[in-house]
Design a protein that fits this description.
By secondary structure, the protein is an all-alpha fold. 80% of the residues lie in helices and 0% in strands. The chain has a single domain, classed as Winged helix-like DNA-binding domain superfamily/Winged helix DNA-binding domain (Arc Repressor Mutant, subunit A, Orthogonal Bundle).
Length: 200
C-alpha cells in the first residue's frame, strides 16, 4: 500500500509544479519557457524525429514548436495537465506542416500541373495525423511514471493478462487494475488535450 501512496504523492507534486510552470508561461515568463524546453524539448524532439526520420528536420520543428509556444502563450489555459499536452499539440501541427512542405516540394520537383485537382494532399495529411498519433501514443506511454508504464506495456504490447502482470511485477491484482485504469485515463486526457492544443 505504501508504494501506491508514494506514487500518488509524487504524481500530485509533479502536477502542482507543472501547473505553476504553465501559469508562469502564460504570464510571459521567459524563464518558464526555458524550463519548458529543458523538460519537454527531448520529448518534442523525439516525436519529430520519429515522425520525420530526419534529425535536421526534427531540430527545425522542435525550434518552431517552442517559438510557437512563446508566441501563442496567451492561448494556454493553465491546468495540472495542460502544458505538456499543449506542447505536444503544437508539435503535431508543426510535424504535419513539415509533411505538407515536403509534399509541395515533391509536386514542384515533379512538375505537377498547378491546376490539377488532386485529393492526395488531404489523404497525405490524414496519414500524417495517424502517424503522429501512433508516435504520440508511444511517447505518452514512455512518459508515464512507473509502474504504470510497465503495466500498460505488458498489457497492450505483450498482451499479458492482469493476473500475469500482477505475478510478474509482484503486485496485488487490485493495484495492477488501478494502475491500468489510471494510466489509460491519463493517456486519454493527455492525447485528447494534445489534439485540441494542435488546433488552437
Amino acid at each position: 500500500m505504501s508504494r501506491v501512496t508514494d506514487i500518488e504523492r509524487a504524481d500530485t507534486e509533479t502536477t502542482r509544479g507543472v501547473l505553476a510552470l504553465a501559469e508562469a508561461l502564460a504570464d510571459g515568463s521567459r524563464e518558464a519557457l526555458s524550463e519548458c524546453y529543458r523538460r519537454w524539448g527531448p520529448l518534442v524532439m523525439g516525436i519529430a524525429s520519429r515522425s520525420l526520420g530526419s534529425r535536421q528536420d526534427a531540430e527545425d520543428v522542435t525550434q518552431q514548436v517552442f517559438v510557437s509556444a512563446w508566441q501563442s502563450r496567451g492561448t494556454l489555459r493553465p491546468s495540472e495537465s495542460a502544458l505538456p499536452a499543449w506542447l505536444i499539440g503544437i508539435a503535431r501541427r508543426r510535424v504535419a506542416d513539415e509533411y505538407a512542405r515536403r509534399a509541395r516540394a515533391a509536386r514542384t520537383s515533379n512538375k505537377v500541373a498547378a491546376n490539377r485537382v488532386d485529393g492526395s494532399q488531404v489523404q497525405d495529411l490524414e496519414a500524417v495525423d495517424r502517424l503522429v498519433d501512433r508516435v504520440l501514443l508511444r511517447e505518452a506511454v514512455d512518459q508515464l511514471s512507473e509502474p504504470r508504464r510497465t503495466v500498460l506495456n505488458l498489457a497492450y504490447v505483450e498482451d499479458r493478462t492482469q493476473e500475469d502482470i500482477a505475478r510478474h511485477l509482484d503486485l496485488p491484482l487490485g493495484t495492477v487494475k488501478s494502475h491500468m485504469r489510471r494510466g489509460l485515463l491519463q493517456l486519454r486526457r493527455d492525447l485528447l488535450q494534445g489534439r485540441e492544443g494542435g488546433d488552437r
